[in-house]
């Protein structure tokens, strides 16, 4: 079952274009009152091939097995009154469409070359399938919800693993940061807004917005493209920017707006369905050395509180840090592989922030750095940060002392899979199930075939 949702990440795309298939359709599977058509299998196999995988007819066996599992879950979800929010369906569809667009290059190319229809029509077509997938996922979660593993179960799981099968972990570290940015004065903000007001007036007087964006915008990514951002959907931009962008009519220029990046004026270029394309000019307030010195002094205060044991590092991060992501986790970096704080492989940390790797290379475990000049990666804001080198583990095979949370997670995953497999066996015995004889040779669907005899 673990594969069902990973293999079906792009299944909606295949479903959206399945009408193009010219094969004669037939029912190849039935679970209670739910049917699976040959075209359902073929459309997902088409997507498998489209992802440049080698032809392999046996993949259809895997696809049918996963569709049978999905229908079994869906049947039980209806009986148990499991629901899914409409907003969740919308979000899932939008995320998948954005993924498809990123793969092919543009919405226009997606519509013309792959979908053969508009994105809006595609959304309507795939909505029932997305609903089914999310209902099945929610049902799967309900089956295993509340399951836990005791320390004894974790140890038993670990003890049964052959030594040469234990995973090898490279050097890993626990690292935190406290970030402080200068606070712009009212005068500095007013100056930035005045610059944009003047540029807006020039546009209204007839000057080309794109030319002014190229000359004056402090967003280098869009400035080189005459300020043009490209098509985006709701939820992709910061809220103040997005709210204004979706209200503008093509050609209209917004008043000055403020976001966490600075101040903007926006010109609408085009609206297509639930996407808009705009240009913008960004001006950031300029701060003086006085504001920089104040930010550095704030971090010196944080160091004082930590060293005098008036605050832990985590408490100081909550009190002083301007970085929302790390502040919410007590200043500690999260491992992107699991979304939790703790040990992070050194190479993973390097992908996150190579500068941090260079900094801790000069530090001892347990040490707190002095305030270090810092420019944020996403917002290109200048400030300072403290780095806390909490711990380090050397390369090793997994063991209970160093890797208990990981082993606990693996033990829980195995237990949940066992619970789910037992549920499937029980429910399969209760439901009417029929599988087409063409799939009789498939190892994956043998349990379903036995039921259908």
Automatic annotation (TrEMBL):
* InterPro entries, alphabetized: OMP_Chaperone_SurA, PPIase_dom_sf, PPIase_PpiC, SurA_N, Trigger_fact/SurA_dom_sf
- Taxonomy, superkingdom: Bacteria
* Signal sequence interval, chain numbering: 1-19
Which of UniProt's keywords are assigned here? Chaperone, Isomerase, Periplasm, Rotamase, Signal
Q: Name one GO molecular function term.
A: peptidyl-prolyl cis-trans isomerase activity
Keyword match Aminoacyl-tRNA synthetase? no
Pfam families according to UniProt: Rotamase, SurA_N
Is Kinase among this UniProt entry's keywords?
no
Question: Where does the PpiC domain start and stop, copy by copy?
Answer: 179-270, 273-391
Name of this protein: Periplasmic chaperone for outer membrane proteins SurA
Q: Which organism is it from?
A: Solitalea koreensis
């Amino acid at each position: 079952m673990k594969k069902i949702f990973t293999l079906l990440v792009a299944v909606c795309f295949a479903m959206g274009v399945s009408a193009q298939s010219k094969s004669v359709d037939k029912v190849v599977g039935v679970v209670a009152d739910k049917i699976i058509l040959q075209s359902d299998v073929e459309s997902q196999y088409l997507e498998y091939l489209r992802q440049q995988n080698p032809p392999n007819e046996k993949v259809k066996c895997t696809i049918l097995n996963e569709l049978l599992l999905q229908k079994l879950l869906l049947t039980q979800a209806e009986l148990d009154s499991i629901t899914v929010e409409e907003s969740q369906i919308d979000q899932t569809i939008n995320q998948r469409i954005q993924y498809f667009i990123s793969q092919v290059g543009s919405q226009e190319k997606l519509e013309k070359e792959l979908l053969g229809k508009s994105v809006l029509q595609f959304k309507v077509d795939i909505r029932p399938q997305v609903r089914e997938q999310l209902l099945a996922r929610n049902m799967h979660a309900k089956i295993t919800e509340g399951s836990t593993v005791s320390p004894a179960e974790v140890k038993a799981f670990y003890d049964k693993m052959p030594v040469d099968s234990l995973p090898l972990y490279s050097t890993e570290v626990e690292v935190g940061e406290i970030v402080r940015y200068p606070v712009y004065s009212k005068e500095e903000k007013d100056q930035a807004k005045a610059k944009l007001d003047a540029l807006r007036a020039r546009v209204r007087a007839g000057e080309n917005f794109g030319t002014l964006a190229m000359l004056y915008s402090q967003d280098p990514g869009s400035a080189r493209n005459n300020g043009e951002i490209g098509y985006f959907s709701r939820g992709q931009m910061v809220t103040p920017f997005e709210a204004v962008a979706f209200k503008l009519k093509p050609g209209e220029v917004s008043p000055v707006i403020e976001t966490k990046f600075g101040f903007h004026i926006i010109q609408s270029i085009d609206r297509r369905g639930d996407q808009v394309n705009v240009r913008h000019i960004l001006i950031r307030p300029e701060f003086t050395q006085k504001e920089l010195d104040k930010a550095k002094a704030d971090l010196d205060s944080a160091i004082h509180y930590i060293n005098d044991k008036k605050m832990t590092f985590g408490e100081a991060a909550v009190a002083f840090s301007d970085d929302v992501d790390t502040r919410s986790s007590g200043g500690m970096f999260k491992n992107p592989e699991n979304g939790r704080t703790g040990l992070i492989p050194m190479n993973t940390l390097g992908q996150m922030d190579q500068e941090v790797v260079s900094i801790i290379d000069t530090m001892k475990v347990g040490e707190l750095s002095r305030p270090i000049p810092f420019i944020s990666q996403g917002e290109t804001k200048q400030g300072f940060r403290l780095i806390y080198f909490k711990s380090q583990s050397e390369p090793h095979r997994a063991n209970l002392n160093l890797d208990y949370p990981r082993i606990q997670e693996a033990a829980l995953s195995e237990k949940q899979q066992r619970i789910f497999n037992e549920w499937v066996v029980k429910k399969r015995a209760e439901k009417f199930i029929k599988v087409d004889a063409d799939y009789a040779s498939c190892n994956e669907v043998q349990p379903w075939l036995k039921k259908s005899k």
